[in-house]
Amino acid sequence: MEYALVIRWLVLYAVLLAAGLPLAARLLPDAAGRGAGLALPASLLVLTVPAYWVGQVSFGPVALAAGVVALLVAAALAAFDAAALRDGRVELAVDIDVRAAGDAFAVFTAAFLFIVAVRAFDPAVFPAGGEKFLDFGLLKTLQRSATLPPEDFWFAGEPVKYYYGGHLMTTLLSWLSGTEPRFAYNLALAGFYGAAVVAAFELAGAIGAERGVPRRIAGLFAAFFVGFASNLVTAGRFVLLALPEGLRRTAAEMVAAQTEYAVSDVLAGAESFSYWSASRVIPGTINEFPLFAWLNGDLHAHMTGTPFLLLAAAVGFAYYRTPEANRRRRRALVFGAVPVIASWQAVHNTWSFPSVLGLAWLAVAFAPAAPWSLLPGVGSLGRRAAPRSRLAAEAARVAS
Predict the structure, then answer these.
(1) Model's pTM, two decimal places?
(2) Residues in CB range of 12: below 8 A, 6 or more apart
């Protein structure tokens, strides 16, 4: 294993997480942890979006520099008080929880090293059982592209007709770390997994703390079930093995009748475990779970885009917690943050693009603040014309 590269990428991720801490603290200033676990997805987004747009004209060092400068400027603007700077004073505008940042990096590191260890047993890009040729081909093509979109490596002379945001992000990380694509593939794969796990940890911890549950317990609970646990079929098979013989057989026959497993498969021990068969439980469907994708090892959009779906959920949570009096902040979240995350998701993983808008819709619809107060000049009118019945009030929320 290339241990030096693993350390180099861990250092890079630590720097990106540190740069994103002010951005995350601006997003969730009053939450437990100040959103520290969302710092890495936030900084990756701010780094990549400017590089993507500059890359339409010139992709390479100029695009990378644009992304780095945008991240540094955004972090500085988020961290420091602008009014104080104008007066010649340096004052922090956000309260960064250093302990929570340490928790976030520890969770990320554990998840990152876990996937690095898994991929070390099977690091190759091969054609069977996935789409690794597509993913690695996009990486190689982006490395030598002069502009975006990159050329379709399976259809020379034509631009690629595919969502390549995760591969673009991986390319930028490989340039920042000075890593060849053949190594960047697995290191970025592990990084996206770590970013998803720590984002789940942070968001659940913030929600749990608001409900009286210790932040770390809620966060670790979510990190385990999002990042490590699969569907219930594997756990259920071990439960069956603990039952008495007659009851075990009857239960196994019932399970086999509803799934694609044979009775002998259901009653088999741990040595028969296959992550592939665990993702094909319901006949005629695919029941993939997050860890399945990373065990399979594709650097694919539905995996690399997951941290940014969690970031979108965090924006919804931030909106939900913002009181109606603070209209400026709520408008910034809905009309500022949501369009950026949603439009990037369209490039990163188009299938998940509607999910960002759906999460925003749910947040606006169910938040205590009236949705019509988002629009300038409509808030007071909405209060005067507020429906008197509960049904009319809910209908007005949906319509707004």
Answers:
(1) 0.91
(2) 173, 176, 177
**Is 27:35 a contact under the CB 8 Å cutoff?**
yes
Confidence of residue 372 (pLDDT cuts 50, 70, 90): confident
Alpha-carbon distance of 164 to 170, in angstroms, equals 10
Look-up: residue for tokens 């507020």? Answer: 386
H-helix or E-strand containing 268?
none
The first and second tokens of residue 226, run together, are 């999002």
* Nearest residue to 48 (alpha-carbon basis) of 136, 181, 200, 164: 164
Q: Give the confidence band of 373 by pLDDT, cuts at 50, 70, 90.
A: confident
Burial 11-41 (b: 16+ CB within 10 A, else e): ebbeebbbbbbbbbbbbbbebbbbbbbbbbb
Contact 55, 206 (CB under 8 A): no
Query: Which residue type sits at 237?
Result: R
Domain ranges (residues) in the chain: 3-213+303-366, 232-288
The DSSP call for residue 30 is T
Chain position carrying tokens 């490590």 = 228
